[in-house]
Design brief:
270 residues, alpha+beta, D-amino Acid Aminotransferase, Chain A, domain 1, 5-stranded mixed β-sheet, 29% strand
């Protein structure tokens, strides 16, 4: 339901209207976001996203800046509506551009890029992900036999598949990752972050070491794909690398400080 500001807020002047998907994420961060918006008397509407880019219910018609938090379908809807900022999504969310801009700071800078239909045989386990942040499939560790079987079944689906022969993918050797962090960057500044994995174990924590935050800020100073995004930092063999950069609107919260993210978005000039 819609909620309209009527008292001063502890945040910057609340000019954004937040459109939040009702089943946003199966994690406490969704409930934290709703609490932050309610306590701050920040205008917001909770919506149901109609499958296959069918829009939202209820319809949202507001004046001024609007931002969405939800699925990729919701970000696409925001783009179609022409909302500002709507969703921070553009052609920069592409592995090929990250590698050009960040070079050796990118964890998988040594990846080979192929069309999905042209990935050649490989020995041993390997990592594969789509080049674009389009959720066509989730990045995964696989073997040649398993990948080849999955590719054959995916291509057999034809138009019903989220991936096709022309989907660009990055294929890289396995890396030994000790820790994984999600950092939120708004207008070039790291505003909050969270550790979310220790080795292979999910271990969300708001504790982020100063060197991780400093590295994330250095990468944001080097290049940013949009005014707001999430930057994943991975520790590999004791060194820090950029794992990936993702659209803020459709990324999980883990244990980062949602209030700091909201405040930073609210403070953005439009």
């Amino acid at each position: 339901m819609a909620h309209t500001a009527n008292v001063p807020t502890p945040f910057s002047e609340a000019t954004m209207h937040w459109v939040v998907q009702h089943n946003l994420f199966n994690e406490p961060g969704f409930h934290t976001l709703m609490g932050v918006l309610r306590r701050g008397e920040i205008p917001h509407t909770v919506v149901k996203v109609i499958p296959f880019d069918g829009g939202v219910e209820p319809t949202v018609d507001v004046d001024g800046p609007v931002i969405v938090m939800g699925s990729l379908s919701l970000t696409r809807y925001a783009k179609r509506r022409g909302w500002t900022p709507g969703a921070f999504l553009n052609d920069n969310f592409d592995f090929r551009i990250w590698r050009e801009k960040l070079g050796h700071h990118l964890l998988n800078a040594d990846a080979q890029v192929h069309r999905f239909g042209d990935v050649p045989p490989r020995e041993g386990p390997f990592f594969i992900r789509p080049c674009l942040d389009d959720k066509s499939f989730s990045g995964m560790v696989t073997t040649w036999d398993d990948f080849n079987a999955w590719r054959a079944s995916a291509l057999a689906l034809g138009e019903g598949a989220t991936v096709d022969a022309d989907t660009w993918v990055a294929v890289s050797p396995l890396k030994h990752i000790q820790r994984e962090y999600r950092m939120v960057v708004v207008d070039g500044r790291v505003v909050t972050g969270s550790r979310y994995k220790l080795g292979d174990r999910v271990a969300s924590s708001p504790e982020v070491e100063p060197d991780v935050r400093d590295f994330a800020q250095a990468m944001a100073d080097t290049w940013t794909p949009d005014r707001a995004y999430v930057l994943d930092v991975f520790m590999h063999d004791g060194g820090l690398y950029v794992g990936e950069l993702n659209n803020l609107n459709a990324a999980g919260f883990y244990a980062y400080d949602v209030a700091k993210m909201v405040d930073a978005i609210e403070a953005m000039p439009w």
